UniProtKB/TrEMBL annotation:
It comes from the Bacteria. Residues 5-336 form the FAD-binding domain. It comes from Pedobacter agri. GO terms for molecular function: FAD binding; monooxygenase activity. This is FAD-dependent monooxygenase. Keywords: Monooxygenase, Oxidoreductase. The lineage of its organism: Bacteria, Pseudomonadati, Bacteroidota, Sphingobacteriia, Sphingobacteriales. Signal peptide: none annotated. SUPFAM superfamilies: FAD/NAD(P)-binding domain.
């Protein structure tokens, strides 16, 4: 492919992964990020399946392993903090994976891997772009302008660049939930186990250990789609405190943390669906294109696999149009499978009443009981090697083989 100068927007996970592989294949890559530096906040994420495969190919799997969050498994607790069910990370029912890492740590690893070969521009974003037969003329917030052969948005669910190109094509599948994330000081009640607690009002608290002597908390609850839309940070804090006040467990501890936190993330839980992932010389990847939400547990898989496939297909294609088409053809079935949720999820996990919470806790306790664990063991109750979810070609070798046949 003759187009070699590529602009990427967004320095989270998909963007630097795409930048690594494009540079690996000989492209000239510039990556811009709206924030003044790396955004290193965020919660625990798992690197498994396609993401683990891609990280292995990039030579960073062991670095990721060394940054493990130390989490040993998942405990369900009631409002009195009594453990009602326990699932160690070896269990098929545990959210804890072999490679658990903080989002910010993975972002730092990817940046360190690419910073010497990719041009990073922080505190910069696209304000306008115009496509021509020769390339994409990009205007930046700094007042600078530059032409690129291709542009790829690897931004988040609210991608500004996506709106500039695709306008209102993105459809958001709201799952009936809002979620909040923040870092909290470690308490005597914390350990190397993640703790999940359901309370009345459709609220789920989750506190997980990290490898920095603190803990990561999330609060997810049912709400109308626009109930908390457009709030300032202080308004978000006030709304969140009001919602969880008096609901028990460690709500009072979390209220104090919310009041003083500087790293609060608070937003709706929505999936992103678009009929296409490219328009002319512009494409989208990661959450901007196909966010599956944390409920699906596939965000890192989708971001890293999508970036890997997009870079590989552009490398192998005769034209960028062919590359974009092949990327979408190979990724879309996987995206669709990742966005499918089991029947009743997430509503079943967020009961509104005390009796509903009690019933849910009883079911979870039963699943974790010895007889049920024994029965599940007969059918493979421990985590097994996951079958290949999506084929990740070895593009360098396959392209070389194709050249020989020409």
């Amino acid at each position: 492919m003759k187009e070699k100068k590529i602009l990427i927007t967004g320095a989270s996970i998909a963007g630097p992964t795409l930048a690594y592989w494009l540079n690996h294949y000989g492209f000239e890559v510039t990556l811009v990020e709206r924030a003044p530096g790396l955004r290193l906040g965020g919660q625990n994420i798992d690197v498994k399946g396609p993401a683990q495969h891609v990280s292995h190919k990039m030579g960073i799997e062991e670095i990721i392993r060394s940054k493990n969050t130390t989490e040993t498994g998942l405990r369900f607790v009631n409002v009195e903090n009594k453990t009602i069910a326990e699932f160690p990370k070896e269990s098929a029912l545990s959210m804890t994976q072999e490679l658990e890492i903080l989002r910010g740590d993975l972002v730092q690893i990817l940046y360190d891997l690419t910073k010497d070969s990719v041009e990073y521009r922080f505190d910069e974003h696209i304000t306008a772009l115009t496509q021509t037969n020769e390339g994409v003329d990009v205007a930046f917030s700094s007042g600078e302008a530059e032409r690129f052969d291709l542009v790829v948005s690897a931004e988040g669910i609210g991608s500004h660049t996506r709106k500039l190109v695709f306008e209102n094509e993105a459809k958001f599948n709201y799952l009936g939930l809002y979620t909040a994330y923040l870092t909290v000081a470690k308490s005597d009640t914390d350990s190397d186990w993640a703790r999940w607690c359901n309370t009345k009002g459709g609220i789920v608290f989750l506190i997980r250990p990290d490898n920095y002597g603190s803990a990561r908390a999330s609060i997810t609850f049912t709400a109308e789609e626009d109930e908390y839309k457009g709030l300032s940070l202080e308004q978000q804090k006030a709304a969140l405190i009001k919602r969880i006040k008096g609901c028990g467990w460690e709500s009072e501890r979390l209220i104090k943390e919310i009041d003083q936190t500087k790293d609060l993330y608070f937003d709706r839980v929505s999936q992103v669906n678009l009929p296409r992932w490219s328009e002319g010389r512009v494409a989208i990847v990661g959450d901007a294109a196909y966010c599956a939400t944390p409920i699906a547990g596939k965000g890192t898989d989708l971001s890293m696999a999508g970036a890997y496939i997009l870079a590989g297909e552009l490398f192998c294609a005769k034209t960028y149009q062919d590359g974009f088409a092949a990327y979408e053809r190979k990724m879309r079935p996987y995206v669709q499978s990742c966005q499918k949720l089991p029947p009743g999820i997430p509503k079943l996990v967020y009961p509104q009443s005390k009796i509903g919470v009690k019933i849910l806790n009883s079911v979870v306790s039963l699943i974790a009981s010895r007889p049920v664990k024994w029965l599940m063991g007969l059918f493979g109750g421990e985590k097994k090697a996951v079958k290949e979810e999506i084929y990740l070609a070895d593009y360098g070798n396959e392209f070389a083989a194709e050249l020989k046949n020409w």
